Amino acid sequence: MINTKTTKYALYKYPSTENIGDEIQSIAARRFLPRIDYYIDRDLVGQWKNENGDETVKLIANGWYMLKPHSWPITDPTIDPLLISIYVEQNSINNIAAKKFLSSRGKKYIQEHAPIGARDIETESLFRANNINAYYSGCLTLTLQADPDIKKQDFILAVDLSEKMLKYLRAKTSRHIINISPYHNFQLPWQDKFDIAELFLFLYQSAHAVVASRLHAILPSTALNTPVFLVKKAETFEKGRYSGLEDLVRSANEEEYLNDYGLFDLDEPGDNPDKYIAIRNDLIEKCSAFTGYNNKKTFRTLDFSKLCENTALINAFAEGFSSIGRAYRLNNELVYRTKEKRNVDRWNYALNAENAKLKLENEELRRELEAITNSNSWKITKPMRSLGEFLRKNP
What we know:
Elements: E1 6-13, H1 20-30, E2 38-41, E3 55-60, E4 63-65, E5 79-82, E6 86-88, H2 96-101, H3 104-112, E7 116-118, H4 121-129, E8 134-136, E9 156-159, H5 163-170, E10 177-180, H6 190-206, E11 209-212, H7 215-223, E12 228-232, H8 239-242, E13 250-253, H9 254-259, H10 276-291, H11 305-308, H12 311-373, H13 376-380, H14 382-393
Parallel strand pairs: 1-2, 1-3, 3-5, 4-6, 7-8, 9-10, 9-11, 11-12, 12-13
Helix pairs in contact: 1-6, 1-7
């Protein structure tokens, strides 16, 4: 039978998150889309509905799952997902996201679209332990395209480091160190966050070197051929979430680096390890095969070249953006438990709604069965049913 459905292409957006790394995940996926017909909120993907049933909507469903676990799995039948570079949150209260992924509906959906590419070893292990065909794919940001028109500058980019580490780095080099954080006010319009994510990537490629504590800084920097070093900051480093990924870059915890500057010399950082290349190539092959498209030229849709020639201007942006991030993280620390409680409440609300629905369905079936058993036809055929039951028990 000839498939007459029109093929469309969708990309995740993130209206409710404060981490610019989410948009960087989508920019990586964008490389493999010939166009974008739909933007779908990742955290509400299970509620997305396509009004045109004659379409197949290809979606590279990578990234962190998820802020609103009750919205999993995907329910729209027109979505054709490539489940790759997926990380399932397992460290929140009650492991809500993991439980939703492994619920009967969630697991059934995943198994229907297996094998599943896990961004990290921890997520791969979660799937495999529950009889889901999965493999370690690495992160899709490793496929980002270095732009040949972006010129290297002389600054060092410090991403989400402690004040102690910043002081240490500034004492080691005469190069200008720009301190920046990828966290922001989530109320920014989602379209603007994509532009800011492009600017971050522009800075990652422009920098002489990057020292960072965040995956969404070290992995894009690796892909963009900028020397990069991971500082395993105690407050943010999670062994499971970094499993399989921290091995792709040079790294140390704060004390190790403070005691051995030779681990990463800012002025002569050297080349990155090449362990990531095989992972990158496999991701490119799988995503290109899925959509039939591969933009090899650039991650950019905007031109930041004039901005990046002015270190003072970059620094002003970075300081302003980082101050927003610091204030936002402080606020998050104050409301963290309340936020987690809200997630639990949402989960319980969804379960209660489902139970209420099942209760109504059971009541309706009970009434139908009662109507049947009280009908004349049921009473008339009772002797025949009794005979049939007797013969089955006494063959």
